[in-house]
Write a structure and sequence with these properties.
Blueprint (H helix, E strand, L loop, with lengths): L9 E3 L8 H8 L6 E2 L3 E2 H5 L3 H6 L9 E6 L3 H14 L4 E6 L4 H4 L11 H14 L4 E8 L7 H10 L4 E8 L10 H10 L4 E4 L5 H11 L3 E4 L9 H9 L9 H19 L4 E3 L2 E3 L1 H16 L6 H5 L8 H13 L5 H4 L6
Parallel strand pairs: 1-9, 2-4, 3-4, 4-5, 5-6, 6-7, 7-8, 8-9
Antiparallel strand pairs: 10-11
Length: 344
């Protein structure tokens, strides 16, 4: 079994609505590390539900990828993990024990498991017994603000055979508000016998490197700071080795936005797509989903605020490409003023 920490020190976090195969393939061109799928319900995998497998779509050429799943029943989680391993494209199975979204918590899964560390242990034990690839857990430091539960979770995760623990340094009821408690993550690392991966509040490559050095974690996971910045992981590795980040310009930005959109369109063309019970063609589906990425790709650029007034009208990939080209063509400031860590 490969040690997960031998992969690379900077990882791409699982983000619902973002880290699909298209995003991962684009990011893989620029960075290494363990990349996570979107979160997927175990029961959907067992039922062979097309939407669930669509969320887990991956190829062997985009390795390594961790399949990120949620559920509260150990047997169902183990069965789903077995089916995922049989696909042959996952380097690890990750168990979600930290998502605070109501529809997941209401099922006793995600962040609800923080309140029952023994159940986390039971799930981990069932999954590790069912597969041969590494099994990791992603959780938070506690559920209710100020009530630390991560030490108890650590004990059950270690005793159940997990290959690593990813810790988001916020409480579940904070969602993504407030600062992540990296000092507590460091304390967990000091007491842990399994690799600890820190997560929370990393927005730049410089912050990722600083977290790795300052808090002694085995790896740093980047989430929202990666959206719209596919270079962040590779830039972090470059800075880690005291090298100079390559110069980039608006042509690089245009290329990567078009590349990402094309990859998303190709992914959508693989299956029938529904939006509010209406069948949607692949081109429109890709354009609609890409909006969340486009906001971050073009954030801070001149005239972007003006263009955003037309944002809701974008309904085809050609319209998205045209907007991107228009915004970039109107830039007058050098790239380095907007993205100082992306160029000299």
């Amino acid at each position: 079994m490969q040690k997960i920490t031998s992969i690379a020190p900077f990882w791409l976090a699982p983000m619902a609505g973002y880290t699909d195969q298209a995003m991962r393939k684009v990011f893989r061109r620029f960075g290494t590390g363990l990349f996570y799928t979107e979160v997927t319900v175990a029961q959907g995998i067992i039922r062979n539900a097309v939407p669930s497998w669509h969320l887990l779509a991956c190829d062997r050429d985009e390795q390594p990828v961790a399949g990120h799943i949620y559920g509260a029943d150990p047997a169902a989680m183990a069965a789903a993990a077995q089916m995922m391993e049989a696909k042959g494209c996952f380097a690890a199975i990750d168990i979600n024990c930290g998502c605070p979204v109501r529809k997941i918590v209401s099922k006793g899964a995600g962040a609800a498991l923080i309140r029952d560390p023994m159940q986390i242990g039971a799930i981990v034990e069932a999954v590790t017994s069912a597969v041969t690839i590494p099994v990791t857990v992603k959780t938070r430091i506690g559920y209710d603000f100020g009530k630390v539960q991560i030490m108890e979770i650590l004990k059950h995760v270690e005793n159940s055979g997990a290959a690593g623990l990813v810790i988001h340094g916020r409480y579940a009821d904070q969602h993504h508000k407030g600062n992540a408690d990296w000092n507590l993550i460091a304390t967990v690392k000091e007491r842990a016998s399994v690799p600890i991966i820190g997560n929370g509040g990393i927005k730049t490559a410089e912050q990722a490197v600083d977290a790795l050095h300052t808090y002694g974690v085995d790896a740093v996971m980047v989430a929202r700071g990666a959206v719209g910045n596919p270079w962040i992981l590779s830039d972090a590795e470059t800075l880690l080795h005291n090298d100079v980040i390559p110069d980039r310009d608006y042509a690089d930005l245009r290329e990567v936005v078009h590349l990402h959109l094309d990859a998303l369109l190709a992914l959508k063309q693989k299956g029938r797509l529904w939006r509010r019970r209406t069948l949607v063609d692949a081109d429109r589906a890709a354009a609609l989903q890409f909006r969340c990425h486009l906001i971050q790709y073009l954030a801070g650029l001149e005239h972007w605020a003006d263009m955003r007034r037309r944002f809701s009208t974008l309904s085809s990939c050609d319209e998205v490409r045209a907007m991107v080209d228009t915004v970039i063509a109107r830039q007058t400031r050098p790239w380095s003023e907007l993205y100082p860590l992306r160029g000299s």
